[in-house]
Specification:
Elements: H1 11-25, H2 30-34, E1 36-39, E2 42-45, H3 58-65, E3 74-78, H4 84-92, E4 97-102, H5 105-117, E5 124-128, E6 142-145, H6 160-163, H7 168-171, H8 179-187, E7 200-204, H9 210-219, E8 222-229, E9 235-242
Parallel strand pairs: 3-4, 3-6, 4-5, 6-7
Antiparallel strand pairs: 1-2, 7-9, 8-9
Length: 243
């Protein structure tokens, strides 16, 4: 309006603007209004069926790109959401192919849309499943996951913008905040050990969950190879390998 105050606003543009303004005033996140959020330099489509990508999740990509993986690795993304990890890694790692798994059909639809629009449709396939059930983990060279890890006891601390609009299935695990992480680790008994190092598992965890992650990892025969802090200094990304 400041740059072009002399130009009349078309009625349709005014209607759309007022609609967006009303939704924003009601607390709906801007990314849902625009239908897009950037991740690792790429514009990912998002809507209320998926979590809005956070910068902290880019640490998983950083950790993975530093690994020594086989040529044309096979990647499993557990709880793919909008597909940010599966699509990004398929595009960043030459020859990589990914299987993206989610319990939500809506999330899988968004992820498949992102794979098509970003040029990864021939490198990423999608599967509806609960974590790694129905999958043979011995067929993969890398497992990544940003699972639900927010404890419901933290609800009073969560902004209404998140609580009222983002999918609770992707935020809250059944039970304690570390419950899904524990299940995922237990299922990863099928990871191949390899000659020297086990197949890597890179996961995002919640604030204050590192001790619980250590316990669950030990109980599942996994060793923690690296812990990476997020931009606030909170342990956020954990790299594990089978003993």
């Amino acid at each position: 309006m400041l740059a072009r105050e002399e130009m009349p606003v078309p009625p349709e543009a005014e209607r759309r603007f007022r609609d967006l303004l009303a939704r924003r005033l009601a607390g709906e996140p801007v990314s849902y209004l625009t239908g897009e959020r950037e991740f690792w330099g790429r514009p990912f489509a998002v809507d209320s069926r998926v979590l809005i990508p956070r910068p902290e999740t880019e640490h998983i990509v950083e950790v993975v790109l530093e690994l020594r993986l086989p040529e044309a690795p096979r990647i499993l993304d557990v709880g793919t959401g909008s597909g940010i990890l599966a699509v990004t890694l398929a595009l960043e790692i030459p020859g990589a192919r990914a299987v993206a798994v989610d319990l939500s059909p809506g999330a899988l639809a968004v992820a498949a849309k992102n794979a098509r629009r970003l040029g990864a449709a021939d490198r990423v396939s999608f599967l509806g499943a609960d974590l790694t059930t129905a999958l043979d983990l011995r067929r993969f060279d890398l497992v990544v996951s940003n699972p639900p890890y927010v404890d419901r006891a933290e609800i009073p601390e969560i902004s209404l913008e998140v609580l009222d609009f983002e999918p609770h299935l992707a935020l809250f695990p059944p039970g304690a905040g570390d419950a899904t992480l524990a299940r995922l680790f237990a299922q990863c008994t099928g990871l191949r050990s390899g000659l020297r190092y086990g197949i890597p598992l890179a996961v995002e965890i919640g604030r204050g969950q590192l001790d619980a992650v250590r316990r669950h990892a030990a109980a599942s025969g996994l060793d923690i190879a690296e812990v990476r802090e997020d931009y606030s200094g909170i342990p956020r990304t954990v790299l594990l390998r089978r003993r």
